[in-house]
C-alpha cells in the first residue's frame, strides 16, 4: 500500500481483521521477560509476532480491527502532530457514529500506553505513526468486542514484561454501547477517514499481485 501510494500520490486507507495473535513492539523485545511473555501468549492460543511500529504488546482476537492510512508528505520533519490529530479526530467520529461516546485519552495502566489513544469505558483505540521520505503511515487498532478475553490474555504478558497493566482498562466498541460487529467498525472507519472524497476499492490481494 505504501509503495502504491508513493507511486500515485493518492492517499490510501485499509481496515481489516488480523488473525488471533499478540503483537510485540520493539521495546518488548528488549525486556528481560520477553521470552516468558511470548511463552504465556502462545500458551493462551495467541501466537506471538513482532511489529516494527508502535509501542507495547497488543492482542488481536480475530475480530479486532486494524487500520492504516497512507498519505503523501513533502517534508518528513513536518506534520507529525497534525496527522496524529486528524487520525484521532476521524476515529472518534467513527466511534460516535456507531453510538459510542468516545473521547481522546486512555485510562491509567492501559495496554500499549501512549499519547494517541481513544477511550470509552476503557481504552478502545491506540494510534501510531511511521514515516519514510515521501509517505506517512498512520495506523492503529480498534477493540471491537471480547475485551474481557483480551484483558485475560494481556495480563500475564504485561506481568512478564514488567509493565503496569490494569485488566479493567481494556474497553471495546461493544462495552461502549456500540455494535460487536467488525464489519460495521470497518465501514465507519473508512467513512470517517475518506469523508466526501471519491473512493476506489482495491483488494489487498490485487495490491500484492501488482
What do these coordinates show?
This protein has 7 helices and 9 strands. By secondary structure, it is of the alpha+beta class. The strands form 2 sheets. The chain has a 6-stranded antiparallel sheet with strand order 1-5-9-8-7-6.
Task: Provide the fold topology.
Layout: H1 2-8, E1 12-16, E2 21-24, H2 26-29, H3 34-43, E3 48-50, E4 58-60, E5 65-72, H4 80-97, E6 103-104, E7 117-119, E8 123-131, E9 135-142, H5 147-161, H6 182-194, H7 204-209
Parallel strand pairs: 2-3
Antiparallel strand pairs: 1-5, 2-4, 5-9, 6-7, 7-8, 8-9
Main attributes of the structure:
single chain, 210 residues, alpha+beta, six-stranded antiparallel sheet, three-stranded mixed sheet, 7 helices, 9 strands, 35% helix, globular
Mean pLDDT: 93
Distance between the termini: 10 Å
Q: Which structural class is indicated by helix and strand composition?
A: alpha+beta
Q: Could you give the order of strands across the largest sheet?
A: 1-5-9-8-7-6
Radius of gyration, whole Å: 17 Å
Poorly predicted segments: none
Largest sheet: 6 strands, antiparallel
Multimer state: single chain
Count of strand segments: 9
Overall spatial form: globular
Count of separate DSSP helical elements: 7
Helix content: 25-40%
Q: What percent of residues are in strands?
A: 15-25%
The sequence of SSEs as H and E is HEEHHEEEHEEEEHHH
Describe the structure concisely for a colleague:
With 210 residues, the protein is an alpha+beta fold.
